[in-house]
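ok here's the first one, seq then struct tokens
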Amino acid sequence: MRMKRIIYTLVTVTLIVASSCESENATLVRCFPDRMSANIIGGVTGNLTADFHYVPDSELLDHITWSDKKTHYFEYDDFGNLTLVRLKRIDYKVQEEQWFSYEGNKIIRVDECVKRLDIIYLDPIEGDSSYTGHREFEYSGNNITLEKIYQVEKNKKETLVIENAYEYDGNGNIIRSVLTDIEAKSEETTALSYHQSKHPYSQINMVFTGETYINNVLSRTEQTDNLEYTYEIVFDNNKYPSEVIEKTNGRVSRVTRYTYFCK
């Protein structure tokens, strides 16, 4: 089975700044996403919202509630390391789970499975689960440089299907990725540029999915398919993005808005 990621492109964009003055106190403010809302324009037009909920008296995500009938739940060990992510999809009556393995403080493997949910109580049905594969990670310093994705095929064998190679800038942002489809023997290359400002998710521990959440993306170039994505960013008073306007090959394709609570 071919796994295709959504990747983007590298061109010049206009950066919209909400205020030209920044106080010293504002630079010390740490903000955590409270709500994300997106207006998606194009082939699949619609609206999507996500509400972020945190473990009491902590900065750890407890769960994210999405408007399209799914919820992410997060579990941690005593040191705050992510150990399990559960994605409950009400529409399909399934629960997708990711289990994390570490060497020191680095995630080296994520095992994945799917569980069927009871149609009444929406709890996992005992004995009705399937192991679907796993991901392995290789590092240079603290950066993931190679991701290997294995899937369980119909013959129950676990097969390497995708390799993702990543390159980084000095801040730890991914600036180039190469996705290799092992079966099709094809590659997809993406280049990215960034603005030196805080990403909406920079203060929380997000699951690695081939993106970095340190600075804000200005442009993404999917070189294989010749797609160009550019981003105009409006900042709030704390210099976090309040609105991000995405354009695909020059046309607006998505408008995303964020609200926060700050410390």
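and now the second one, same deal
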Amino acid sequence: MGKIEIDDVLIYRGDVYKNEKDRNQIITFIDTSGSLFTKFIDGDEMNIVNPNSGYFELCEIIPKEEHKLKLTNGIPINWDDEN
């Protein structure tokens, strides 16, 4: 896995946290310890993910250049002319 950056999308694929499974989380901040601060795209819930956790091991990371998600709150993720 490459370097994780702000605006990448994290998707939990595990079964322990069923209410978070398969939901897109956009990474909004990365602190100095490497913890990922995320926001679920389909709601206002925030999350903090430790990259050394079992939760993170069950996540898929989609780089911002590849996910091309559109936010429903009117804030675009892609600022260029990509479709």
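notes on #2: Residues 9-67 form one domain. DSSP finds two helices and five strands in the chain.
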